[in-house]
């Protein structure tokens, strides 16, 4: 097990108190809390984890609480299959998989080492509902029309996310994007791209996953019809020649 958490208010007792608060807020089972604590231990122990936030007292908010806040979105609470595109260190994939053992979670990233890290961490956490996929969101034929939710945190501007997500969603499924401060131009482009991809109007809802969090919000976009012809475009095009 990891040594001492550094940073303000350090100590595993403080981390455990914070986990207990989150368990009460989101109705988590004790097994979920234990799994999330293991994730914090793995992050603290592994200097190669692809994040600068490894101190448990910080990571419990910036990774665990932030991931759990996805449960405020009905589509995330109700989903049967979710893919986290650009999962990195497994946020939100691992956090939501721990919170909802009945949810099938795919953790996808273009970087194979990150996917290996996430699947190893899932095993340490005792999760049986996480599949790692090394690939690009816009070039994954096996994932087409398969998901109730496409989740993404800190991956791309909204318009690019909409283009990545639409082909992977079933009709009626939703893109759920963890976003920060409102950017009117990003939102305008996101809405324009959604219109081209048979997706609905983006909906934005503020959230405060931890007490000091500022400017956090979810942007969700529903898939309302079949993926239009010509999508997904060739890998890289969504970023190279953005729509909107
Ligand atoms: C800044 S990290 C965010 C990681 C994690 N979601 C988080 O919030 O901690 C962005 C990740 O997205 C991945 N990524 C970028 N474009 C992608 C694509 N087209 N398909 C899949 N993953 C992608 C990168 O490899 C990177 O790991």
UniProtKB/TrEMBL annotation:
InterPro entries: rRNA_ssu_MeTfrase_G (IPR003682), SAM-dependent_MTases_sf (IPR029063). This is Ribosomal RNA small subunit methyltransferase G. It is found in: Cytoplasm. It comes from the Bacteria. GO terms for molecular function: rRNA (guanine-N7-)-methyltransferase activity. Keywords: Cytoplasm, Methyltransferase, rRNA processing, S-adenosyl-L-methionine, Transferase. Pfam families: GidB. Residues 221-244 are annotated as: Disordered. Specifically methylates the N7 position of a guanine in 16S rRNA. The gene is rsmG. GO terms for cellular component: cytosol. Its EC number is 2.1.1.-.
């Amino acid at each position: 097990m990891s040594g001492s958490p550094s940073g303000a208010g350090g100590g595993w007792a403080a981390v455990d108190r914070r986990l207990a608060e989150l368990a009460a807020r989101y109705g988590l089972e004790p097994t979920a809390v234990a799994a999330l604590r293991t994730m914090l231990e793995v992050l603290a122990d592994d200097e190669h984890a692809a994040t600068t936030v490894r101190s448990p007292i910080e990571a419990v908010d910036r990774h665990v609480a932030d991931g759990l806040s996805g449960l405020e979105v009905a589509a995330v609470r109700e989903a049967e299959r979710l893919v986290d595109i650009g999962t990195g260190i497994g946020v939100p994939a691992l956090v939501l998989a721990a919170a909802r053992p009945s949810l099938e979670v795919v953790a996808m990233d273009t970087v194979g080492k990150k996917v290996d890290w996430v699947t190893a961490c899932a095993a340490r956490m005792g999760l049986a509902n996480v599949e790692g996929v090394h690939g690009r969101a816009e070039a994954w034929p096996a994932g087409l029309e398969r998901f109730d939710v496409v989740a993404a945190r800190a991956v791309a501007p909204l318009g690019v996310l909409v283009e990545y997500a639409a082909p992977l969603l079933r009709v009626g499924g939703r893109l759920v994007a963890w976003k920060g401060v409102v950017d009117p131009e990003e939102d305008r482009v996101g809405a324009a791209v959604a219109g081209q991809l048979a997706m609905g109007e983006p909906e934005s809802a503020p959230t405060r996953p931890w007490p000091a969090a500022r400017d956090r919000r979810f942007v969700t976009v529903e898939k309302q019809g079949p993926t239009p012809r010509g999508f997904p475009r060739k890998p890289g095009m969504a970023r190279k020649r953005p729509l909107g």
